[in-house]
């Protein structure tokens, strides 16, 4: 019996198709996905452990980095284990409530990821453009307030998603053409007019993402302008290299998220396997890259991690 047979899936469950057109490659696609997930978990846990152990790292930059690491762990863990079960074990069924819970974590923590990128950009702006006032502007209490605001914003804007979907009637075959429960993929299964529901989701995602992206870009433009005016060429190159790597990670996140968003709205001619593959990339790559770019390339974290490792091995 195929997934299109409605008796295959109970009324309280959905059938995750995976990547349409690439079902025969699911096993092989799962290998790099699993590797990236392993790196994301080890890297982000290492950052959290190092910052927790070293009081000298209790600075705004590293506190925001810890918040980003927690977000990455939740975001990747809410999707990858379930996705690998689909790829490797053929576990296509997902309970309706589990689907809604996964959707909440994906959308709210993606919004938090965007918010923490913005918070880190603000921290870098103050540190480079106004270094003498950095400690007084970004106090520990202010860092906590900014972190709490990012979390509350993500929860407030995207907690209505599962509530709205819970109220809809579903009279079509409950097959989700995706690897995870994404809002737009699920709302298409409803047999009632969902125009207002779709508009709310699109406005919330686009409004939040575009605002964050604008202010991040503005911050880094000011940072780069300050970097080029540094008296030491060595200092300029070092700051430029750090900012460049940060911008690359941010660009990957927003470009893939933007592609996924615009494809839902306008890109009906985009092949489903391309759309879904890139939708996976924007959830997988940032948690994989963030520990490398913000952790391994940050000398303080790298040195403390190596010293802790040496102590454990000795």
From TrEMBL:
<dbReference type="Pfam" id="PF13853">
    <property type="entry name" value="7tm_4"/>
</dbReference>
<dbReference type="GO" id="GO:0004930">
    <property type="term" value="F:G protein-coupled receptor activity"/>
</dbReference>
<dbReference type="InterPro" id="IPR050402">
    <property type="entry name" value="OR51/52/56-like"/>
</dbReference>
<dbReference type="GO" id="GO:0005886">
    <property type="term" value="C:plasma membrane"/>
</dbReference>
<dbReference type="InterPro" id="IPR000725">
    <property type="entry name" value="Olfact_rcpt"/>
</dbReference>
<dbReference type="InterPro" id="IPR000276">
    <property type="entry name" value="GPCR_Rhodpsn"/>
</dbReference>
<dbReference type="InterPro" id="IPR017452">
    <property type="entry name" value="GPCR_Rhodpsn_7TM"/>
</dbReference>
<protein>
    <submittedName>
        <fullName>Olfactory receptor 52M1-like</fullName>
    </submittedName>
</protein>
<dbReference type="GO" id="GO:0004984">
    <property type="term" value="F:olfactory receptor activity"/>
</dbReference>
């Amino acid at each position: 019996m195929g997934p299109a047979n409605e008796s295959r899936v109970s009324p309280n469950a959905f059938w995750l198709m995976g990547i349409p057109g690439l079902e025969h490659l699911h096993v092989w696609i799962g290998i790099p996905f699993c590797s990236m997930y392993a790196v994301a978990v080890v890297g982000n846990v290492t950052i959290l452990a190092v910052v927790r152990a070293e009081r000298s790292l209790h600075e705004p930059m590293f506190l925001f980095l810890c918040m980003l690491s927690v977000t990455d762990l939740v975001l990747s863990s809410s999707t990858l284990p379930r996705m690998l079960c689909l790829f490797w074990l053929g576990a296509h069924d997902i309970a309706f409530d589990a689907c809604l819970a996964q959707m909440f974590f994906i959308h709210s923590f993606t919004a938090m990821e965007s918010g923490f990128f913005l918070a880190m950009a603000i921290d870098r702006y103050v540190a480079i453009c106004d270094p003498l006032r950095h400690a007084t502007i970004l106090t520990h209490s202010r860092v906590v307030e900014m972190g709490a605001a990012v979390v509350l914003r993500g929860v407030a804007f995207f907690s209505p998603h599962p509530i709205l979907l819970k109220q809809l009637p579903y009279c079509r075959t409950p097959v989700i053409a995706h690897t995870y429960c994404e809002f737009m993929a699920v709302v298409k299964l409803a047999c009632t007019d969902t125009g207002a529901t779709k508009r709310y989701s699109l406005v919330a995602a686009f409004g939040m993402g575009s605002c964050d992206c604008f202010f991040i870009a503005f911050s880094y433009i000011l940072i780069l302008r300050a970097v080029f005016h540094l008296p030491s060429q060595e200092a300029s190159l070092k700051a430029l290299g750090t900012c460049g790597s940060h911008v690359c990670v941010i660009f990957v996140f927003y470009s893939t998220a933007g592609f996924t968003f615009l494809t839902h709205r306008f890109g009906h001619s985009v092949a489903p396997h391309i759309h879904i593959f890139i939708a996976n990339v924007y959830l997988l790559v940032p948690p994989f890259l963030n520990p490398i770019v913000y952790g391994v390339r940050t000398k303080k974290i790298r040195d403390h991690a190596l010293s802790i490792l040496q102590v454990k091995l000795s």
